[in-house]
Amino acid sequence: MFYKPEDGHGLPHNPFKAIVTPRPIGWISTRDSDGRDNLAPYSFFNAIADTPPQVMFSSLASKPDRAEGKDSVSNIRDSGVFCVNIVEYALRDAMNASSASLPAGEDEFAVAGLEKAECQTIDCARVAAAPAALECRMTQIIPLKGDQNILVLGEVTGIYLRDNCLVDGIFDITTYNPLSRLGYRDYTAVTELFSLNRPGQS
């Protein structure tokens, strides 16, 4: 089949997110101007550069108690910082619990039963149990086409790696099985990998 998004797909569910898969999950932690912590998962997330290291995530909805975007975006506008916590398979239920729509200022760390740790380069909490975390300073917030579609860009200023994920000097993702978002209500976890050399590499 072929369809134009503007005309609709005619299917029971929108296939777009199922096509662009798997998508890494950015579990974004922020802190508001009153010192209250927030945590929310975003599946429109990725690394976009490595020198200096930079990441992005997109917020695609609004909340009735916010003028624009979700709590994460509002907090980042105020503080200029955020932390990306990497989600492992073992934390899938806590990640899902933190996706609940809660009133502004309510702490998703507490709702999800997660211990906090303080970031070192920014004023923000991170998920203490996460296999890795990227401390970020916001560089741009860009409105995208569509209602309440907002792109957040950040430069990584500090990187936390859980010690047991380092194997012979390599950050080994098979030690924690990163969780990824698929389409609909589906997720997957990376459990195995393979390597390929580029043409000309040995």
TrEMBL record:
Domain of life, source organism: Bacteria
Residue span(s) of domain Flavin reductase like: 18-173
InterPro entries reported for this sequence: Flavin_Rdtase-like_dom (IPR002563), Split_barrel_FMN-bd (IPR012349)
Any GO MF annotation of the entry: oxidoreductase activity, acting on the CH-NH group of donors, NAD or NADP as acceptor
Pfam families hit by this protein: Flavin_Reduct
Cited PANTHER family: BLR2425 PROTEIN, FLAVIN REDUCTASE LIKE DOMAIN-CONTAINING PROTEIN
Descriptive protein name: Flavin reductase family protein
SUPFAM superfamilies, per the entry: FMN-binding split barrel
